[in-house]
Every structure is written in C-alpha cells, then in structure tokens.
Automatic annotation (TrEMBL):
It comes from Vibrio fortis. It holds the Pfam family LolA_like. InterPro entries: TP_0789-like, UCP028205. Residues 91-267 form the Uncharacterized protein TP-0789 domain. This is Membrane protein.
Length: 273
C-alpha cells in the first residue's frame, strides 16, 4: 500500500514538473511568435534613432532649413511665421526670423546655450529652448532637427498606433532621455515604424515630468527620398489649437564661423540669409 502511495505521489510530482515546463515553453513561444521584438538591444536602438534623424534632416552636413510655422485655431489658420534655420554638426544652429512682424530678430544655439538677438539691441538675451515662438512651437522645436545628439534611447515595447485615417501602424516605442543640459525636453516617448524606423509620433516631457505637448510627423518626399515634411504639435490643455511646422526646403549650405558668434550677430544685420 505504501509503495502504491509513493508511486502516485511520484507521478503527481512528475506531472507538476511537466506542467510547469510546458507552460514555460508556451510562454517563451508566445514572445517569439507575438511579433514583438522584445530583444532590441541598445545598439539597434541607436541605429533606429539615427535613421529617424535622417528622415528629418536628410544630410549630416551643414544645412539650411526653411521652416514655416502655421497656427490653427479650430482648424482655421490664425498666424504664419517663417524661420530660416542654419544648422551644423555639434549642436549649433542659427535661426533667422523672416516674417515682417519679427524682422531683424535672430536666435543662436551653441550646444547648451541659447541667445535671442533683437534688432534695436546690442545685448544678446539668454533664453531657454522652451521659449515660445508661435503657438506650441518653441525655440528648441525650430532649432533642433535631430534626436541622437541630445538623447539616449531605450526600447520599451512594440505597439500599434492609429493614424488620423484609422490605419494601424506597427511601431517600436522608445524612451529617449536627455543627455545634454540644453536638450529641449527631459524625456521623449518616440514611436518609430518597425519596418523603416520612420517617426510617427512623440510625447514630449518637461523636467517636471509633465507632458508638454504631442508631436505627429507627416511623411512626404524630398529629392526623391522619404522624408518628414511637417510636424504637428498638439497641446491637450488647448485641444482646439494646433501648430504645424512645415519644412519647405532643406539644402546643404554652410555659413562662416562668424555667424555662430553672438557678439558678431549683435552688431551686424543678417537679414539677407
């Protein structure tokens, strides 16, 4: 009798081990076949971000970007401003204000430092990247067109994102964390398509952890290549307002070093740029 009880006990123990083994295998298989790339490593994330940057700024060389900002209120155009942005490597940008109401103004970004230069003043004004220009468009939104120089990324999960037209897009959700003091945002939740790493949307967070705004990216072509041609900025506090930054023209163009000197800019007009 005792032998029979031992046999039954052993069989039950074996069945329990077998059950746990099967469940573990099924769980692992569910990860493999769910389509979720759960093993995306840091190097792959870095490559994704670099690729996403190239959709925004097609060249790694010094470039001129003609940015037109449209402010919509209840889907009606309220205001428009134009900014010519001269960007070059190592986080340096010069922004020329081209609209008549802002004529003569310019903004300079050198790494973590930002200056606003007014036409009737020879004293550069220190500002932050969160300084608003029009609507939800801030200095940082206009002067910075890449993520890889200011943020380090971490893979979060694979996620479907619904577009305005109802289409579902499979994306990699990344968490970007600022690695420079001059970064426009403390952190960014960024969604990139799984097939091409094209940017779909981004949630932009302040240092306090508060969601500042949400960005959506529009795809088009530039020089025959798929590119980000516009970025819409939404504020959940004012859902009736929308700011659209349209990148009308991007071309390789280099300026002399003097144009990246606040002292030179405060004494000289650069309205011809």
């Amino acid at each position: 009798m005792f032998n029979d009880l031992n046999a039954i006990s052993n069989r039950r123990a074996s069945q329990t081990v077998w059950h746990h083994t099967v469940m573990t295998c099924l769980l692992m298989l569910s990860f493999v076949f769910s389509g979720s790339s759960w093993a995306v490593d840091a190097e792959q994330v870095t490559e994704m971000i670099a690729k996403a940057d190239r959709y925004r700024l097609n060249s790694e060389q010094a470039s001129k970007v003609v940015s037109v900002v449209h402010l919509f209120d209840n889907d009606k155009l309220d205001k428009t401003r134009q900014y010519n942005v001269y960007t070059r490597p190592n986080r340096e940008s010069l922004v020329i204000f081209k609209s008549a109401v802002e004529a003569g103004q310019k903004m300079l970004m050198i790494e973590d430092n930002y200056w606003l230069l007014m036409p009737k003043s020879r004293r550069p004004i220190r500002i932050t990247p969160m300084q608003k220009l029009l609507g939800e468009a801030s200095v940082g939104d206009i002067s910075t067109l890449t993520w890889s120089e200011d943020y380090r990324g971490e893979w979060v999960q694979q996620e479907n994102v619904e577009l305005d037209n109802g289409e579902l897009v499979t994306t990699h959700k990344l968490k970007l964390t600022a690695k420079t003091k001059g970064a426009s945002y403390q952190s960014i939740d960024l969604w990139l398509t799984t097939d091409r790493a094209f940017p779909v949307k981004a949630d932009l967070y302040l240092r306090s952890g508060k969601l500042a705004k949400q960005a959506w990216f529009d795809e088009g072509e530039r020089n025959g290549l798929p590119s980000v041609v516009a970025m819409s900025l939404l504020d959940k506090i004012q859902p009736n307002k929308r700011t659209l930054i349209e990148y009308q023209e991007i071309s390789e163009q280099s300026l002399a070093d003097k144009y990246y000197n606040p002292a030179y800019l405060s004494r000289n007009s650069v309205s011809g740029l």
